[in-house]
Design brief:
The structure holds 2 protein chains of 2 kinds.
Chain A lengths: L2 H24 L3 H21 L3 H32 L2 H12 L1 H27 L5 H9 L8 H9 L1 H21 L11 H24 L7 H17 L10 H8 L1 H15 L9 H28 L4 H11 L1
Helix pairs in contact in A: 1-2, 2-3, 3-10, 7-8, 8-12, 8-13, 9-10, 10-13, 12-13
Chain B lengths: L2 H23 L3 H23 L9 H34 L1
Helix pairs in contact in B: 1-2, 2-3
């Protein structure tokens, strides 16, 4: 594509991104706002593709737009059921907004100032972007990382520590969700049309997850995109009104939730015992170790996202607790 | 400096400000959660714009890895925030 054509494309893309963000934020209706936010995420994924970031585009489409959107929509559904019951809360919200009307201008001006400061910093940073040392170090050491996709090499090898802690963040979040309440009740079984769709879609999603996990070593993909796709399969099953959506029983579920962090720690500590640095894989083994960690991480991420969609302790764990109490 | 870097980066700055304004001003928890996600998307946009090196040139993979981590952390924070909001509404309707 020629430069002018690309510039027109950029312009149209950015205008639609900003207007989607604006209308998602300005819409007073929560459901509308969430749906616009999902559209915003999908258009963002196109922008990531345009900026040659296919790994990010995949993650944005699967997680940013897909699963975040599903989580928000379920929350909206629950909220609007409640809102019909008592209008009192809404009135108090409206009053709160009116009280703060004087503050609105101050905050708006501060936000404009923040945008201007960020823009100033960005322009300066881009001016001095001749320093490419880190990117060079990555490409020089890529051969020793065990994978040929530089993003996977950074996430699972060069900066494996960050990814370990990221999985710890996920684990903390899911522990919080489990502690806060019980899962939402199951949905009613859907009609034959959605059932037929689920019958086709779920196996395809599971296969895609396996493919994304494997291909992450040398092309866009990896544990996060694969985990999100696997979770999407469970979400489709749940929406179809299925009772069992592939979540294991209580004990196994706890093991899987901790599997990402656990596998990382087992491998890191074993390497430490063998006299290597923590998570410093031997180059000959790096590829297999990364695949092992990614497989465990994929299961943990998928289970975490499914539990987030359920919104609390699934019946399996809740029943288990009641038995313990008796 | 590339035009595309500048265009996408500045749009990112604008989206950060739009998101932050709604986080601070909106009363509804759900709108705030959406707004925090929009704010995060603006930050990701700045990072991906910085990583871009022009058509046909491989981009810097480090910001990409950061954004990937950011997306996953954002969805787990969103899930926890929604669970907290759900519990809060349940407690309020009990009172």
């Amino acid at each position: 594509m020629n430069t002018t054509g690309l510039l027109v494309f950029d312009g149209l893309l950015l205008i639609s991104i900003v207007s989607l963000a604006w209308s998602a934020l300005a819409s007073p209706d929560a459901r509308r706002s969430v749906i616009l936010f999902m559209a915003f995420g999908l258009v963002l994924a196109v922008a990531w593709g345009r900026l040659l970031a296919p790994d990010v585009a995949l993650a944005e489409a699967a997680i940013g737009a897909g699963l975040s959107g599903a989580l928000l929509l379920v929350a909206v559904g629950e909220q609007s059921n409640r809102a019909l019951q008592d209008n009192a809360l809404r009135v108090s919200e409206r009053n709160a907004l009116r009280v703060r009307a004087t503050l609105q201008w101050v905050i708006t001006i501060l936000c404009v100032a923040l945008a201007a400061t960020l823009a100033w910093a960005l322009v300066h940073a881009l001016d001095r972007a001749t320093n490419e040392r880190l990117a060079q170090v990555v490409s020089e050491n890529l051969a020793a990382s065990g994978v040929s996709n530089p993003v996977t090499a950074i996430l699972l090898n060069f900066r494996a520590y960050d990814t370990l802690l990221e999985l710890a963040v996920l684990l903390t979040a899911v522990l919080g969700i489990l502690a806060l309440g019980t899962a939402r009740p199951d949905y009613q079984r859907t009609g034959p049309v959605f059932d037929g769709l689920a019958r086709w879609l779920v196996p395809v999603l599971i296969l895609t997850a396996g493919y994304l996990l494997w291909v992450g070593a040398h092309a866009p993909g990896g544990a996060f995109q694969a985990g999100a796709t696997l979770a999407a399969a469970a979400v489709v099953l749940r929406l179809a009104g299925e009772r069992s959506i592939g979540l294991p029983q209580a004990g196994a579920l706890r093991v899987i939730l901790a599997a990402g962090v656990g596998m990382f720690l087992v491998i890191g500590l074993t390497l430490l015992l063998l006299g290597r640095p923590f998570l410093g894989y031997p180059p000959a083994w790096a590829g297999s170790l990364i695949l092992l960690i990614e497989s465990a991480a994929m299961l943990a991420i998928a289970a975490t996202l499914v539990l987030a969609f359920l919104g609390g302790r699934p019946p399996a764990i809740a029943v288990n607790e009641e038995n313990n109490r008796c | 400096m590339l035009t595309a870097q500048l265009l996408y980066g500045l749009t990112g700055c604008l989206i950060v400000a739009l998101g932050l304004r709604t986080v601070l001003l909106h009363a509804s928890l759900l709108h705030r959660v959406v707004a925090i996600n929009v704010l995060g998307a603006g930050v990701f946009m700045i990072l991906v714009a910085i990583a871009y090196r022009g058509p046909g040139v491989p981009p810097d993979p480090i910001p990409h890895a950061l954004v990937l981590t950011g997306i996953v952390v954002a969805v787990s924070a969103t899930a926890l925030a929604l669970a907290l909001a759900r519990r809060l509404t349940a407690e309020q309707s009990n009172d």
